[in-house]
Backbone:
């Protein structure tokens, strides 16, 4: 993390800031607080979809109450952009209150890694540990492979898994009639891309596949993109991140081709990328990204 563990602020979702970004499409913005995601609520005539929960049961309850208020008695569904704790470890409060839908890879990854990530995140400081108190991992009521169309009544939301990219189980959540895409951590705005590349424990990141996902998303021309962290924007938000990742890949590939080790690559290249984006947050992820692409090059 960019802050020390002692100074990481409480990862609190604040529903009072909920904002309508399209007809019946709402977000609870992250406020640029570390480990707080953008949370979505999508209204249909018959059902209401929640996208991500925030970290821990207290945040999950706040999201659930905000969704209930907007739903006005309509049934709820919940989906997650991916399994990481700040996005989905508040899901337990939705059990019995909403139908929970994951893609199959996401559920498998949650089962395989959820407890490990819970333990890792608990080391991020007292505020994060407190937020994670009492977390229980939640299976899905329904899973899918490829894509799944959710009929909310009067509108359809499409869930589309991307394959291995930021995680094994990333998905894009598209409100079809509004052209709004909830992208999770596949896209960040003024935040360095988050590479959860932690060899040997977790290497389920594919930087080049991730770039292809971003290029495909750009080509689809969404009206609005809701990033995992940062401000909502148009396709340019995706283009900026794709270009940055392509530059990061080129630097890592060149260093590997020159015989530089991963450590040397980070030492020589990291600060140049950080300095080129002084208004971006979480610069620690640049080094992880360089290591990820360096390993990718050596494997080819």
Residues:
């Amino acid at each position: 993390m960019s802050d020390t563990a002692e100074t990481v602020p409480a990862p609190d979702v604040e529903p009072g800031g909920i904002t309508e970004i399209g007809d019946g499409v709402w977000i609870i913005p992250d406020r640029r607080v570390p480990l707080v995601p953008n949370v979505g609520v999508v209204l249909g005539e018959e059902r209401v979809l929640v996208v991500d929960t925030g970290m821990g049961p207290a945040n999950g309850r706040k999201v659930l109450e905000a969704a209930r208020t907007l739903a006005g008695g309509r049934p709820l569904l919940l989906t997650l952009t991916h399994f990481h704790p700040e996005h989905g470890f508040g899901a337990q409060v939705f059990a019995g209150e909403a139908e929970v839908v994951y893609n199959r890879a996401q559920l498998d990854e949650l089962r395989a890694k959820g407890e490990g990530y819970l333990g890792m995140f608990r080391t991020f400081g007292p505020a994060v540990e407190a937020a994670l108190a009492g977390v229980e991992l939640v299976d899905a009521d329904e899973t899918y492979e490829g894509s799944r169309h959710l009929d909310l009544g009067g509108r359809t939301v499409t869930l589309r898994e991307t394959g291995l990219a930021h995680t094994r189980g990333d998905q894009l959540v598209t409100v079809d009639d509004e052209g709004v895409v909830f992208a999770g951590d596949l896209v960040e705005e003024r935040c360095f891309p988050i590479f959860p590349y932690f060899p040997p424990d977790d290497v389920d990141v594919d930087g080049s596949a991730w770039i292809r996902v971003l290029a495909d998303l750009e080509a689809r021309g969404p009206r609005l993109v809701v990033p995992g962290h940062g401000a909502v924007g148009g396709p340019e938000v995706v283009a900026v991140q794709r270009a940055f990742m392509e530059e990061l890949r080129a630097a890592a590939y060149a260093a590997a081709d020159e015989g530089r080790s991963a450590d040397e690559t980070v030492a020589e290249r990291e600060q140049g990328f950080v300095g080129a984006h002084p208004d971006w947050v979480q610069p620690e992820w640049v080094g992880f990204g360089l290591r990820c692409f360096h390993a990718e090059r050596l494997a080819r």
